[in-house]
Amino acid sequence: MLNDGTVVAAVADGLGSARHSDVGARLAVDAATDFVLRQLEHGSLDGPALMQRALEATRARIHEFARSSGVSSSTLGSTLLIALVQGPRAFTGHAGDGAIVKRIDGQWTIASPPEDTLYVNYVTPVGCDRAPSTWQVYTHSRVEALALLSDGLERSAVRRKAKGYEVNEDFFRPLHAALADAPEPEAGARLLAETLDSLALRAANDDDKSLALIWTPPLRSH
């Protein structure tokens, strides 16, 4: 969070089939957030252009690292979800699976759905040559909260329907209520960690689970 209340957040999930996916995920988060923070300080890009360029910068960083390390960029495969939140306005960029959801007027809705692919368990990593055609960049208004989640939480947090996805509000409602009453950020972070490590979530999916939650003030349970 910056001094003016602006929040930059990113979540990346390395592909299980990629040998160095853990490195790729770290590269993705670092490249995207570094680019956005530099642009906020010195650049003049608007929100959507900033998200698009952040994805491009991430792809370039992955290819650059692959060349300098003597590995294929495919071994660094990772998804990426990035958000810039400025008060009630938010801008999001999304490559691969996982999802971004938003809370508006007390209701959670899909902000950016998982990538729609022809094949089950196939994901287009952010560094892939054809990735730019699959990227999702959106602008959101009247945002009360935003959540970036990896695919390990999809089954718990969102549901696939005949016409797209819908949010499982039962997943977010207790989180909102508990975090609203957390006395300090550290307590809220512990709550999230405990929830993500719960038996219920582990039973639902054994994949890696990453969740970034951003609330625009004030945060009150209701």
From TrEMBL:
The record's annotation in Gene3D superfamilies points to:
PPM-type phosphatase domain
| Pfam families recorded | PP2C_2
Q: Which residues form the PPM-type phosphatase domain?
A: 4-196
State the InterPro entries in the record. Answer: PPM-type-like_dom_sf (IPR036457), PPM-type_phosphatase-like_dom (IPR001932)
User: Which named protein is this?
Assistant: PPM-type phosphatase domain-containing protein
Q: What is the lineage of its organism?
A: Bacteria, Pseudomonadati, Myxococcota, Polyangia, Nannocystales
